[in-house]
Amino acid sequence: MASLNVGNLGEYLREQRRTAQLSLRQLAEAAGVSNPYLSQIERGLRKPSAEVLQQVAKALRISAETLYVRAGILDEKDRDELETRAVILADPSINERQKQVLLQIYDSFRKENAAENDAEQQPTDT
After folding, report:
1. What sign does the dihedral 62-22-5-57 (CA atoms) show?
2. With the CA atoms of 35, 37, 43 and 44 taken in that order, what torsion angle do they form, in degrees rounded to the nearest 10?
3. Which of 18, 31, 102, 109 could be disulfide-bonded to 55 (CB atoms 3.0-4.6 Å)?
4. What is the pLDDT of residues 1-24, one digit of tens each?
């Protein structure tokens, strides 16, 4: 797990806030955090918790996982897996049993591919 990269996170948050046309005060209120605290996060002076990042992501209507990756809390490959699972679970066109079966198949493919990649990485005796 990477260390927190708060400078990069703060710049990204500021960019997202401006894109959403929100003032610092408006975003702080929507996320349920104080205005000075959010300002410190944007300036790279504070390391927000995963819970705060989740609240900010919800207020900005962006993926919390994206913020976790930016903050160094989550690896990129972990984010991809979580987003795939979230899409499957959110699909209203399939029932719960089908979602669980699909997730089991997805897991089996991931494990199979990981095992193949591990085997390819092993040095061979010559």
Report:
1. negative
2. -160
3. 31
4. 344 455 589 999 999 999 999 999
**How many CB atoms are located within 10 Å of the residue 40 CB?**
16
Give the Cα separation of 48 and 120 in Å (integer).
39
Phi-psi region of 34 (alpha: psi -120 to 50; beta: other; left: phi over 0): beta
Amino acid at 99: K
Tell me how many degrees the CA angle 111-113-115 measures, rounded to the nearest 5. 70
Q: What is the three-state SS of 9-33?
A: HHHHHHHHHHHCCCCHHHHHHHHCC
Q: Do residues 57 and 51 touch, judged by C-beta distance below 8 A? A: no
10 versus 80: the higher-pLDDT residue is 10
Q: How far apart are CA 99 and CA 92, in angstroms?
A: 10
Torsion sign over Cα 24, 11, 53, 102: positive
